[in-house]
Write a structure and sequence with these properties.
- This protein is of the alpha/beta class and about 325 residues long.
- It has eight helices and eight strands.
- Strands 2-1-3-8-7-4-5-6 form an eight-stranded parallel beta sheet, with helices on both faces.
- Helix 7 links the parallel strand 7 and strand 8.
- Helix 3 runs parallel beside helix 4.
- The longest helix is centred in the C-terminal third of the chain and has 22 residues.
- It starts with about 35 loop residues before the first strand and ends in a 7-residue tail after the last helix.
C-alpha cells in the first residue's frame, strides 16, 4: 500500500530572498510594489579602497536581523500595512564598462519611476547616485539633495567616473538646486568660499540636537522634491568601519536615524545608501547600519503614503 504525500511548498525552504526577506522579483515594473529595492554592485569609481560592489549583498544579508520586527521602534505602524516592497536584485551590466553601467542605471531607474514606483538603491560606490539623479530628474524635475557624507563630492578635478565628483556635475546638469540642498557630516577639505551647498559639518552636527539639524534641513529644502543619499562614511568608523574612505569624527548611527525620522513631511522622491564595503567590516556592523538606514527611509516613504495631505507631491 502506497501512502500519498502532499507535494511540499518548496518556497518555505528557499533562501532566495532579498532585502528584509522580501521576495526577489525580476519584473518589478509589473508588480504591485510601491517601492523597488535595487542593488548596484559597482566600485570602479573609487579613489580609495575598493569593495563597494559587494555592498548590496552585505546589506541584504544584514537586513535579515531587521525583518522580524513588524512594528519597528519608535514608529507606530507596521511597514507592510502601508508599503509593498519588492527586491529586483542587482543590476546586470557589462563587467568593467563604466559607461554601460551608468546608462543601464539611468534606464532601469527611469522605467521604475515611469511605473509610478519609488526606488531605494543600495550601492556600490557613491558614483551610482549621479545616474540615479538623472532618472529622478526626468520624473520630478529639479530636486533638493540631502547628502550625508564625510566628503562633499563636489570635486572638479576627478575623472568622468569618480565617486568624488557627482555633486560637481549634478548642479551643472541642472538636476539639483544647490540653493535647496544641504550636506551633513562633512569633515574633509572643500572650497568654502565657492561652495554652494549648505553644510552642517560633522563637528557641528555632533554638538547639535538632532531636532535642530532637522529644522535646518527643512528650512533649506522647503517643498522641493527631495532626494536623500547616505554615504555610510558619514558615520564614524566606530559605527561603520566597512567602507572605502573612513574618516574619524563622524556621526553616531543613533543621531543619523533620529535625523532621518525627523524628515517626516518632506516631499521624498528618491533614496540610496552607498559605500558599504564588507571586506573591511567587523561583525557586519557597517552592513547592519546600512540596512537600518534604508529601513528608516522606507518608513519615511510609508509615512508619506499614509499622510498624502501633509506630504504633497
Amino acid at each position: 500500500m502506497t501512502t500519498m504525500i502532499d507535494k511540499p511548498d518548496y518556497s518555505l525552504y528557499s533562501n532566495a530572498f532579498g532585502y528584509l526577506r522580501q521576495p526577489l522579483n525580476f519584473n518589478p515594473i509589473a508588480s504591485d510594489a510601491d517601492v523597488v529595492i535595487l542593488g548596484l554592485p559597482f566600485d570602479m569609481a573609487t579613489t580609495g579602497r575598493s569593495g563597494g560592489r559587494m555592498g548590496p549583498g552585505a546589506i541584504r544579508q544584514a537586513s535579515i536581523n531587521l525583518a522580524w520586527e513588524e512594528t519597528r521602534w519608535p514608529w507606530d505602524f507596521k511597514l507592510s500595512d502601508h508599503l509593498n516592497i519588492v527586491d529586483a536584485g542587482d543590476l546586470v551590466y557589462d563587467c568593467g564598462d563604466s559607461a554601460d553601467f551608468t546608462q543601464r542605471v539611468e534606464d532601469f531607474a527611469t522605467a521604475i519611476l515611469d511605473a509610478d514606483k519609488g526606488l531605494l538603491s543600495l550601492g556600490g560606490d557613491h558614483f551610482v547616485t549621479l545616474p540615479l539623479l538623472r532618472a529622478h530628474f526626468k520624473k520630478h524635475g529639479k530636486m533638493a539633495l540631502l547628502h550625508f557624507d564625510a566628503h562633499t563630492d563636489t570635486y572638479s578635478q576627478g575623472s568622468q567616473y569618480d565617486h568624488g565628483t557627482m555633486f560637481y556635475h549634478a548642479p551643472k546638469e541642472g538636476l539639483i538646486s544647490t540653493a535647496h540642498s544641504i550636506q551633513v557630516g562633512i569633515r574633509t577639505e572643500y572650497d568654502r568660499e565657492s561652495h554652494e551647498f549648505q553644510v552642517i559639518d560633522a563637528a557641528t552636527a555632533n554638538d547639535m540636537h538632532a531636532d535642530d539639524i532637522v529644522a535646518q534641513i527643512k528650512a533649506r529644502v522647503g517643498d522641493m522634491p527631495l532626494y536623500v543619499t547616505f554615504d555610510i562614511d558619514c558615520l564614524d568608523p566606530a559605527f561603520a568601519p566597512g567602507t572605502g574612505t573612513p574618516v574619524c569624527g563622524g556621526l553616531t548611527s543613533d543621531k543619523a536615524m533620529k535625523i532621518l525620522r525627523g524628515l517626516r513631511g518632506l516631499n521624498l522622491i528618491g533614496m540610496d545608501v552607498v559605500e558599504v564595503a564588507p571586506a573591511y567590516d567587523s561583525a557586519e556592523i557597517t552592513a547592519l547600519a546600512g540596512a537600518t538606514l534604508g529601513l528608516e527611509m522606507l518608513h519615511l516613504w510609508a509615512d508619506k503614503k499614509r499622510n498624502p495631505i501633509k506630504n504633497s507631491d
